[in-house]
Structures are given as structure tokens and as C-alpha cells.
Write a structure and sequence with these properties.
alpha/beta, Nucleotidyltransferase, domain 5, 9 helices
Length: 328
Amino acid sequence: MGDAASGPAPAGGPHLGLDLGATNIKWAVVEGERDEWRTIDRGQESTRTAQGPDRVVEQLTAIARRATARWPGICSIGVGIPGLYDPATGAAKFLVNMPGAWADHPVGPPIEAALGLSTSLINDARAFGLAELRLGAGRGAESLVGLTLGTGVGGVIAIDGHVILGHDGTAGEIGHQVIDPDGPPCGCGNHGCLEAFCRADKIAAACGTATAGAGISAAQAGDQKAIAGLAEIGRLLGIGIGNVVTIISPDRVVIGGGNAAAGELLLGPIRDELRRRVLTTPLDEVEIVLAELGTWAGAIGAAVHGAESAADRTAEASIATGSASGRR
């Protein structure tokens, strides 16, 4: 099934997560292991996107330096990437909302070289899901489906308590499943993706407002056009979520991101559509809930991923050393 974010944290100190966004870089320091994680520090600063990828990576490194000065025991770093990356090289591949030439631009290696700490990348939606699985609304679930509703629609799938990453970190792209082959163009290059119908600008258009946030506020204030617009977005999300529920049969579906602020105005129509479309799995055993960790989930999940990846590397090295010793 591909790589999964899994395993206990390495023994020792806390772990740092960096969440790279086009507007802000958030960071979090966590400690713990298995399902007993806790956040012990966090912060954010504006991303210097206008200065290009080199400057942004330098900024990530500077934030990491300051965090390790505050918490000298930090022993791993995870970086949440808003797009595609190469897990083998630690380079970005395609960051749709980040200006500049990010294709094949190193992110992990410069940070690891500067700090001398194991550094691992993870897609920001997968980081969100890992954080919610370990510390938030997904805690205790064996299997989970997660969506982040923001500028686009991010996704994550967890099975047997592990976030599934696939061989290249792209597993779980729920927003890029096709729900209408003749649908509108999507930023990924395809047509008819769930994201193409439910991204922020489409929410605004459905609600008749300038922004998705304004549409949500109008609906919460009783505006009927906005309420109907969110109901239609919820119906479309329900189609996409229903597809994944049919395939995965998860314990829980966790919905986060800024546009999840619509709450039951979206969740109600999503549940209605699931009842119409999911006929093979008992829906009374599938919880549909809102995320709990808010905008910090990406940084927290990146930290947990960095810790678990470092633990996996240590375990693999130990096995390799033992095998080599056995051959002598």
C-alpha cells in the first residue's frame, strides 16, 4: 500500500514541525509518543514568498535555529509542504500556490545540513490528518478520511492507525478524484475534480459573495442564497466523500481547513448525500466530525511525522547493522 507515517517517536527530546504556507510559516514543538503527544510551543511569521524559494528555505532554517535555541533537546524536524515533493531527495516538485521556481528546489537537505537533525517532508494535508489522528478529532480511530477545505481541497487517508503516504507522498489526494469527467478545469491539469467544484472561489460563487468566508458569514446570518450555495457545495463534497467511504469504510471522517467554519451548514448536506450514495457500509458506524486543532494542525502533524520518520530510520539502520553483523 505504500509508505505510511507510523511508529513511535525516537527517545530523547522534543520534535519540531514547520508548516510552509504561502502567507505564513507556522511552527510547533511537540513531545510524546504513540497516541500521547502534546504541543509544548508554537508560533508563526509571514512567509517571504516575494523573495523566492532560496530566501524562503533560509527563513525555514532560521525559524528552526530559533526553535532549537528555545528547546535545545529537539531531535527531529518535519516540514509540511503545500503541494508535491520528492521523498527521496527532499525537494519540492509542484507548489501550486507558492510563487517562484519551486520545481526540484531542495527543502529538506539544506535544513538538515544546517541543523544537523533528521528532516522529513510531508504534504500539508497529510500533516493535518496525522495531527488530527494523533492529537485531535481522529484520536482513537483505526481508519480515517480527512479533508481540508481552504483555497483548494486537501485530503488524507489513514488505515490501521497510520497515515498512508504512498511511494511518493501523494496518497490521499481526495480533492483530485474526478466526480464529473466533463466538469470544469482543475489546477492539477485534470477536469471535473472534487476540488474544481469545492475550492474557495467556487464556494464564494455558489453563495453569491466575494469570498468563501463572506459566504459562510452570510449563510450563518440567514442569507438564503448563501445557505443554498453551501448546501450545494456540501452535496458535491458528499459525492466525493461517499466514494472514499465506500472504498475505505473508515471509522471517522474529519473535515478541517478555514472553510470548515461553515459547520453544520456543510456537514448536514454532506451527511444527506452520504445516505443517498453509500449503500455498502453502515453509516451509523462512520462519524462525520469537524477537526479540532485549527490552523496549527499542519505544523503539529509535520512535527509528529518528523519524529516518526526519524524513528523509522533508526529502526531500519539497526536492522541493517544487525544483518551485517550476522553475515560476518
